Amino acid sequence: MAVFSVFKNTVLLLFFILSSCGNPSKAHNKAPDSKVAQDTIAADLPINIAANRTETYLPLLQGKKVGIVANQTSVIFKDTQPLSFTHIVDSLLAHNIAIKQVFAPEHGFRGEADAGEKVSDGKDEKTGLPIISLYGKNRKPSNEQLKNIDIVLFDIQDVGVRFYTYIATMQLVMEACAINNIPVIVLDRPNPNAHYVDGPTMETEHRGFLGMTNIPLVYGMTIGEYANMINQEGWLENKVVADLTVIPMEHYDHHKDYILPIRPSPNLPNNTSIYLYPSLGLFEGTNVNAGRGTEFQFQRYGAPFMDSTKYNFKYTPTPNFGSKDPKHNGEICFGKDLSKTPKKDTVDLDYILDAYGNTKDKSLFFNTNGFTKHAGTADLQKQIEAGLSQKEIKKTWQNDISRFKKIRAKYLIYN
């Protein structure tokens, strides 16, 4: 399991010093005198993720046959010197919770499969539990797979980008559970891109596994907030409603920095890549390499067909962990290094506009079907090809973003 470098800041250090039982901090027993005081206290306390709050969800699981949707990020944190944690599956088994099925999303239960790589059913070597893939022949649990399940627990780290497929998996799990009258518990985790809303909104005719609802590319919600929204807005198939419980975090807000301690998927190695992912992820629908096949995934972009006279940065993708056959494998790519980019608060189109503008043969650039699926609209490719500026393109997003924000406001758990 790959682990991120941990920044040396007080908030992060405090966050990790949590017991596996997840007891809330006992500081500040006296009620604050004002909302300002409350906000100050919350800013000073470590984030207590829902998985660590075992006292809130263990009673809901005791005596039940449990299905769990989990991957390598589904952990209960213990300490940071050194970094230590317990996988939630191991924790539940230690508490004599009867786990019957483990459901694995894209990249698998241990998070080692390539993007788009088929994940097969199997058995977890450590626990012997059966693993059912939700990224193979079926992406929604079948009635048969849920037959002996009383309740489903969902605990996966999200990064807040519409085409990141864990939210699609959650939606399909909620639909299947609603149909089978099985309650769902979602354990909430921080979203490192929760501090803004931006990007084109998914259009109904282009919906699919890279975007199942009409939301902007960056939707500014935790996975728990989003679960409540799709459930209560009637966005599940046939408007079914799940028996949903979201276990919230403590001491979290949308603007609180959160450094992911565990790589959420093979090609998001650190927070720089996560902050750039909404912008550089659009390259997935082009023939431009976005760092796959290097150790700087989603922190650079380039291609052999981009104008070599315009760039002083070049690199050569080769197979590595998470990318067995990267775009332009073994070829020199000319482009830009973005590894020193600070935290983003916008979807930045300058990168794709730069790459397209410096591609001599424009016919080499887009994979139209894939680009439309990622963008959620056919308009963005047309706007880029027509030479519109970032400002002009973003102006066309604003009405949809405003409408979404009004819906979003109803479901925010945190400031």
Layout: helices, strands, pairs:
Blueprint: H1 10-16, H2 35-44, H3 54-61, E1 65-70, E2 75-80, E3 83-87, H4 88-94, E4 98-104, E5 122-123, E6 130-133, E7 151-155, H5 166-179, E8 184-187, E9 198-201, E10 216-218, H6 223-232, E11 244-247, H7 271-280, E12 300-303, E13 313-315, E14 333-337, H8 350-357, H9 368-375, H10 379-385, H11 390-395, H12 398-409
Parallel strand pairs: 1-4, 1-7, 4-6, 7-8, 8-11
Antiparallel strand pairs: 2-3, 5-6, 9-10, 12-14, 13-14
Protein described:
It is a single chain. Helices cover 26% and strands 15% of the residues. The chain has 12 helices and 14 strands. It has helices spanning 10-16, 35-44, 54-61, 88-94, 166-179, 223-232, 271-280, 350-357, 368-375, 379-385, 390-395, 398-409, and strands at residues 65-70, 75-80, 83-87, 98-104, 122-123, 130-133, 151-155, 184-187, 198-201, 216-218, 244-247, 300-303, 313-315, 333-337. The chain has a 7-stranded mixed beta sheet with strand order 5-6-4-1-7-8-11, sandwiched between helices. A 3-stranded antiparallel beta sheet has the order 12-14-13, with no helix packed on it. It has a two-stranded antiparallel sheet with strand order 2-3. It is globular, with a radius of gyration of 21 Å.
| Coarse structural class | alpha/beta
Average pLDDT reading: 89
Spatial strand arrangement across the major sheet: 5-6-4-1-7-8-11
> Helix count, per DSSP?
12
Overall 3D shape: globular
Rounded Rg: 21 Å
Number of strands: 14
Strand content: 5-15%
Main sheet specs: 7 strands, mixed
Specify the helix fraction band.
25-40%
Distance between the termini: 32 Å
Report the order of strands and helices.
HHHEEEHEEEEHEEEHEHEEEHHHHH
Low-confidence parts, pLDDT < 50 over ≥5 residues?
Answer: 1-41
